[in-house]
Design goal:
The complex is a heterodimer of chains A (about 260) and B (about 400).
Chain A lengths: L5 E10 L5 E10 L4 E6 L5 H9 L4 E10 L2 E2 L5 H7 L1 E4 L6 E5 H15 L7 H14 L4 H5 L1 E2 L5 H15 L3 E5 L7 H13 L6 E5 L5 H4 L4 E6 L2 E6 L1 H10 L2 H4 L4
Parallel strand pairs in A: 3-10, 3-11, 6-9, 9-10
Antiparallel strand pairs in A: 1-2, 1-4, 4-5, 7-8, 11-12
Chain B lengths: L8 H12 L3 H10 L14 H4 L24 E6 L2 E2 L9 E7 L8 H9 L2 E7 L4 E10 L5 E10 L4 E10 L5 E10 L4 E8 L6 E10 L4 E8 L4 E10 L4 E11 L4 E10 L4 E11 L4 E10 L7 E10 L5 E10 L5 E9 L3 H8 L5 H17 L5 H21 L3
Parallel strand pairs in B: 1-5, 4-6, 5-7, 6-8, 7-9, 8-10, 9-11, 10-12, 11-13, 12-14, 13-15, 14-16, 15-17, 16-18, 17-19
Antiparallel strand pairs in B: 1-2, 3-4
Helix pairs in contact in B: 1-2, 5-6, 6-7
The chains are: A alpha/beta (about 260), B alpha/beta (about 400).
The structure holds adenosine-5'-triphosphate and magnesium ion.
Chain lengths: ~260, ~400
């Protein structure tokens, strides 16, 4: 068997200028083709985990290890992680005034291709790829003409994240609450977009509060995250059980 | 009459030039006050007495064949080299260029007064009423280190449209340049004035801009300081007719030990005029970028509307940005506001771009370009915008190279 796409081993982390530990021993392995869902209370550390995977400044890993396709992920710069195939769909995508969405998409795509020693995409090929991906996600050409994420509605931002993901074709997709802010139709569209990316050599980590998303993106595993670590793992049924019983049944805290 | 103060060697040299120019009044005034120091409010961040260590002994002499700073595609160009107009050819219709005796300065700025005393002649550019012209004025200081002073007076006739881009450039020597530009925008006229400093690092430069606006007129300005080691740009704006709007803009794009100061003084003298002031500084190394902006609203200038904004981007520990906004309002029915921001590149934006595979240097460059876009985009003149973007691109590349990345 080939090595897993992602291995998180006893990961401990804190905020750089604060002694409070946020991640308290996360263990998780994702193999190719697998979709894992993480559910957990507000503030339990889910976004922190996703930021540490993507390489955001301001956090300090105090213990443990993260291997991405066998390589030490934590040693890499954020752009190197992206080039290696990691993609984080942000819970709150950043608005960047003055940077045109199309320019950004092209720069990102070509930066990754260049770093991998591939040819840059020609403008017509690039336009074609964007148009196709945008069409699948119901993203208007008007939106693509605006500055990156600026003035996008909550749902539009989430769709734009999935558009980027579709274009960049990562091996590991981390989706941080991509479903929140989406209306019912958009949830379906976005889920279809995500599902079309499912493949044997790609893994997905889906962070969500709502079991409804998991009706669309059916996970192979569900993990309950509480106070900085995974306290329970199971299959799809665990999400349903969680919805009935609440978090208290798993982390012992009052609801 | 007060006693003469003790002049520094640089001031002595400058005094000599004023005497040689035959302007006894200016010489006498200078002998008594010398260069402005930090106690002079308008020069608080640019203490010339301290900063100006040397003034070239030589006056810029006539040159036969001056160089070209840049050629804008399809744009007519006139060259002023070492203070003298090079006989222009191929001027577009509606444009007249003549030489006249340099005008006396209005106002009390000491460097503008020195310009008036030293500049022998002024190049007068008249845009005929109703005409539509685009013009490049290539102002050059050539040869060995010299003191150069010149004047340009542009008159945009009634109902005319003018786009004027000025570049400052020349040889690499340690010149001291004192330039003045006056732009008169007649009723119903529309003018854009872009100034780009492409001087060598060794150059010390003073630029005095004066804008006089008629009724129903429109003006947009952008002054870019990026070449000279020391730059001081005065921007005086005066609204003399109603229903007129002006956008004043400026950029200090600096590195190393560069020092650039834009000091603006805009007066809404009549009712129903509006203005915006947008000034940005991007500094790395130990550079110092300064913007002082003062908006005056006269007693009768009701319904004046002015929005002043100053934004700074600090790219290194040693860089400094100073901003001083000031409002002096004597009318009661006005809307005037000012704001200032100063900081480093936005971490979360940088992370977002990098998380998509864009290397740090490129991501930073994207954000810096985005920061400047607001100044360049409204110019609506492709060759000039492209040129400005090339300047920024070169600046970013030099920054990346010197950081060894
Ligand atoms: N930069 C930071 N500085 C201080 N505290 C932080 C920082 N980042 C995260 N935290 C804290 O760490 C904890 C975990 O936050 P995180 O955003 O990872 O939670 P989450 O599980 O994603 O919550 P939600 O479901 O609300 O999105 C919270 O208590 C949060 O306040
Ligand atoms: Mg979160």
């Amino acid at each position: 068997m080939s090595s897993p796409i992602l291995e998180i081993k006893d990961l401990h982390a804190k905020v750089e200028d604060d002694d409070k530990e946020i991640l308290k021993g996360v263990n998780l392995t994702l193999n190719g083709g697998e979709v894992h869902a993480i559910m957990g209370r507000n503030g339990s550390g889910k976004s922190t985990l996703s930021y540490i995977l993507a390489g955001k400044d301001g956090y300090e890993v105090t213990g443990g290890q993260v291997l991405f396709k066998g390589e030490d992920l934590l040693e890499m710069e954020p752009d190197e992680r992206a080039v290696a195939g990691l993609f984080l769909a942000f819970q709150y995508p950043t608005e960047i005034p003055g940077v045109a969405t199309m320019t950004f998409l092209k720069t990102a795509l070509n930066a990754q291709r260049k770093a991998r020693g591939e040819n840059e995409l020609s403008t017509p090929d690039f336009m074609k790829a964007v148009r196709e991906a945008a069409g699948n996600l119901d993203i208007s050409s008007d939106m693509l003409k605006r500055a990156l994420n600026v003035g996008f509605s909550g749902g539009e931002k989430k769709r734009a994240e999935i558009l980027q993901m579709a274009l960049l074709e990562p091996t590991l997709c981390v989706l941080d609450e991509t479903d929140s802010g989406l209306d019912i139709d958009a949830l379906k569209t976005v889920s279809d977009g995500v599902n079309s990316l499912r493949s044997p050599d790609r893994a997905m980590l889906v962070i969500t509060h709502y079991q409804r998303l998991l009706n669309h993106i059916v996970p192979d595993y569900v993990h309950v995250f509480a106070d900085g670590r995974i306290v329970e793992s199971g299959d799809r049924e665990l999400a349903l059980e969680l919805e009935q019983k609440g978090y208290a049944a798993f982390d012992g805290k009052a609801a | 009459m007060q006693d003469a103060i003790k002049l520094s060697p640089a001031e002595q040299t400058l005094l000599g030039h004023l005497r040689d120019a035959g302007d006894d009044v200016a010489a006498q005034r200078f002998e008594q006050s010398g260069l402005p120091n930090r106690r002079v409010e308008e020069y608080h961040y640019s203490d010339l007495k301290m900063l100006l260590r040397a003034v070239p002994e030589a006056r810029a002499a006539l040159v036969e064949q001056p160089g070209t700073t840049v050629a804008f595609d399809g744009v007519a160009r006139i060259t002023i080299a070492n203070g003298a107009l090079v006989a222009p050819s191929g001027l577009p219709e509606g444009l007249t260029v003549t030489i006249e005796k340099a005008g006396p300065t209005t106002g009390s700025d000491p460097m503008a007064q020195i310009n008036a005393a030293l500049a022998g002649e002024a190049v007068r550019i008249a845009v005929a009423p109703g005409a539509d012209v685009t013009l490049h004025i290539d102002r050059r200081t050539e040869g060995e280190a010299a003191l150069s002073a010149d004047q340009v007076a542009i008159e945009v006739g009634k109902g005319a449209k003018a786009f004027v881009v000025e570049t400052f450039g020349g040889s690499d020597a340690a010149h001291m340049v004192n330039a003045a530009t006056s732009l008169t925008v007649a009723d119903e006229a529309n003018a854009t004035h872009v100034q780009i400093d492409r001087q060598a690092l060794a150059v010390t430069q003073f630029v005095n801009n004066r804008y006089e606006l008629g009724a129903n007129a429109n003006l947009r300005t952008l002054t870019v300081n990026t070449g000279a080691g020391f730059n001081r740009v005065n921007v005086f704006g005066h609204f003399g007719g109603g229903d007129t709007h002006a956008d004043f803009g400026g950029l200090n794009l600096l590195e190393g030990k560069q020092h650039a100061d834009i000091t603006l003084d805009v007066t809404h003298a009549v009712p129903d005029t509006t203005s915006s002031e947008l000034f940005k500084s991007v500094c790395r190394g130990d550079a110092k970028g300064i913007f002082q902006g003062k908006i005056n609203v006269a007693k009768d200038a009701q319904k004046s509307d002015a929005k002043m904004m100053s934004q700074g981007l600090l790219l290194s520990e040693g860089a400094e940005i100073h901003t001083k906004p000031e409002l002096e309002i004597f009318a009661d029915d006005v809307i005037c506001g000012h704001g200032a921001t100063c900081g480093e590149l936005d971490d979360s934006a940088l992370f977002y771009l990098m998380s998509r595979g864009i290397p740090r240097v490129e991501a930073e460059a994207m954000l810096i370009r985005a920061f400047l876009d607001e100044l360049f985009d409204p110019l609506d003149n492709e060759p000039v915008t492209e040129y400005l973007e090339t300047i920024v691109g070169d600046w970013l590349a030099a920054a990346a190279a010197s950081e060894g990345k």
